[in-house]
Amino acid sequence: MSAQQMWKVSTGKGIKVAVLDTGIEASTSALKGQLLTEDVPREVAYGATKDYDSHGTSMAELIAGTGRGGGIQGLAPDAKIIPIRVALSTLKDKAEQKRTATTAEAIRAAADSDAQIINMSFGSDYPEDEEKAAVKYAASKGKLLIAGAGNGGSGDKKDFLGFPAAYPEVVGVGAADKTGAVGEFSQSGDFISLAAPGLDVPVWCDNTFQRYCMGKGTSQGSAIASAAAALIWSAHPTWTANQVLRVLIDTAARDWPKNTPSKYLGYGLIRPGSNLIKGKGDPGPADVNPITNEKTPAGEAGATPSASVPASSQPPKSTSSGRTSTAGSSSEPSDGNTLWVVLGAVAAAAVIGGGGFAVLRARRNG
Asked: What pTM was computed for the model?
């Protein structure tokens, strides 16, 4: 169930992923031709293809990088990226903050775009009313919202709720290593829905975009989970977000009952190959959220274009954000010429899954 085998079935073609992050550098070799700049909503267009931190570019490449020029080959290399820049805590310039979208504005704009999937590799330990409303709005439009769970699992904030991952409409993703064991930094809690590779995953070292480093974080887990969703949705274009998520849950690797999800790994470690190669996973009803079991708008809203709304319908812009990326830290530089192989190896470990969970696993109700 390696990535190479999955790509014979699906490469993510036809799927658009809105990456809400620090901006996405359009000039990297792995992202040439992958950014849909014409699809960026006008009201959040500022800085979309200028990354102030390198984080957003890394996430976009993990999702849909082509591997050209020694760059990262993402898990869904034929998916396309809609870049939306967000004012996260690493954006220090006050003037830039004022011109850059808040998380709530970015989510609403992504909801009104043609993206089927919204990746949010950032988080904070407090909710915001405008952000919560924006998430509900995006879910009502049939979008699949995926976010990193947070990296405070081994510190003083080990029991905090990470937002937007903790909103009921968002898939919170934890980080696991190649053996399937949860990273010690990965946040725990009832809001963890799934886990994905998040340790020893290549990312850009900084915003000079000169070299890659091996990094860790639930940001990477979120991006790879979004790519896995893109692969499945591309293979089943008439499904809704609910059905794509249900299959990700059904096919996730776990050694515990599905009705008692893990506090650390949720319903398990993603393995899209179980669906793409073996045909496993029941999509179930189109209009029922598989996590909340609540009714949602029926139909194919997530797989069809949504009408744009005027900028005047967006909430007021604020000048700062407490949100931060959930990338974790980076270690030593890696050889860019072999990075796509490294990512392929990590992804293959994810779809094999199974062992290595028992010691570090904890029940949500435990």
From this structure: 0.86
Measured CA to CA in angstroms, residue 84 lies from 11, 40, 41, 209, 364 at distances of 23, 7, 8, 19, 33
Residue 179 CB partners (closer than 8 Å, separation 6+): 349, 355, 356
Q: What single-letter amino acid sits at 191?
A: F
Question: What is the domain extent for residue 137?
Answer: 3-352
Q: Is the pLDDT of residue 312 over 60?
A: no
Tell me which residue of 74, 87, 109, 102 sits closest to 347, measured CA to CA.
Answer: 74
Answer yes or no: is 339 within a domain.
yes
> Which is it for the CA torsion 204, 180, 117, 165, positive or negative?
negative
Any idea what DSSP says for residue 102?
Answer: P
The residues that are catalytic are 21, 55, 219
The CATH number of the domain holding residue 215 is 3.40.50.200
Average pLDDT over residues 36-50: 96
Predicted confidence band of residue 330 (pLDDT cuts 50, 70, 90): low
216, 183 in Cβ contact below 8 A?
yes
- Structurally, how many domains does the chain consist of? 1
289 has a pLDDT exceeding 50: yes
Q: Which two tokens stand for residue 353?
A: 């899954």
- Average pLDDT value for residue range 98-106: 97
Residue 45 lies in a domain: yes
Domain presence at residue 364:
no
Does residue 357 lie within any of the structural domains? no
The CA-based angle 113-115-119, given to 5 degrees, is 115
Is the pLDDT at 315 greater than 50, yes or no?
A: no
